[in-house]
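Hi there, hope your week has been kind to you so far. Do you reckon you could talk me through the fold, stretch by stretch? I've dropped the whole record in just underneath, so have a look:
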Amino acid sequence: MRERVHGQLALVPQFCAHEHARELAEINCILDECPQLEALVQRDLLRGGVAPNRGRPGLTAQQVLRATVLKQMKGYSYEELAFHLTDSQSYRAFCRFDVVGPALKRSTLQENVARISPATWERLNAIVVAHACATGVETGQKVRIDCTPVEANIHEPSDSSLLWDVVRVLERLLEQASKVVRVSRLDQGKRAKHLSIAILRAPSAARRRPLYIELLRVTARVSRYAQRAANTLVRRGGTAARTLRARIARAIELGERVMDQTRRRVLLGESVPASDKIVSIFEPHTGIVVKSRDEVIYGHKVCLNVGASGLVLDCAVHQGNPADVTLAVGTIERHRAAFGAGPEQAVFDGAFASRANLDAIKALDVRDVVFTKGQGLRTHEMARSAWIYRALRRFRAGVEGCISFLKRCFGLDRCTWKGFGSFVAYVQASTLSANLLVLARHRMA
């Protein structure tokens, strides 16, 4: 059984007298004023033909939404979230749980949150922003736009560590396959691990080269074992065998890409383009984002559109490492699609600046388009006066504080959910949680 909200709780817990509890109570009021949020979550929870009026009672859409907001706001793991929802009176009041209800399980929370799609999270955030505009907190007429990288949940990649990852994943899958079909192989896990460590300790490229050749040979051997096991699983038949074969085939495919880029980089001395590289076999969607000459982030670039109230009006996750200058016009077009009109004033970081961007954004009825570094553009071309130009430059500086707030308090520095779709959902869920807290503080003030 899956309800949107509980009609009546048995014993209703109360918020305690604390500043954080007062913020939660205000967010609670905001969510109550936007019942369409729970309707969208309910639709995702029932996706796949789940009957809402059959089976044991599950978490309501209201509870799932509020628990996710709380998780992103406090940076809890699912284990910690389950404990605090069981232990805290204010958290149970916020998430609409009975006082004497049963303890929640980590797996239950994780399964329910994972059912909410990235598109739904984006739509939820748009509804909250629209509510802020309707209540006069935000107008959408003055925006500041900047990009920031968000890390994926992977280790620092190297050719040797990636090859070792391929071997140990394939060995684990072969061990599972051996319980279903007969698998003929020699365990190469320890050999690959020793070679990987030896490569890290080697003092020079000349000493590393033969070790890489041997590690590539070991990886290719394990890949052949896995391919033979996959072929045997085809003849076996059955759902479990097909699922295992698909996982093995995927691991082999990623392993081939890792071996290819290692041969090109280490043995042939090629400079492999970032778009051709794979930096993790566990999160193969991960891109290489060059933040500065000395800092490289493995994850995705996120473009944020922040209003004068501090609310994130729009958030877009981009694959690869697109240049900021290519994102400026698209961000304003997304704003027009959401608000029905472009902002009156928009200010960008200097990396977005170009004559083409200035002309294109002005054509979208934006009166003042300011880049903090003009790149040859004159002040009177960007803004109506020098005073407005200086004011908008000062206004743009506030976006750095908004980004820091998202990273420090809402986990936007590193995504811990698996897969690109989940990466986008994580970013949107963090943004929604931050917007609800900012909106609540505006109302409390």
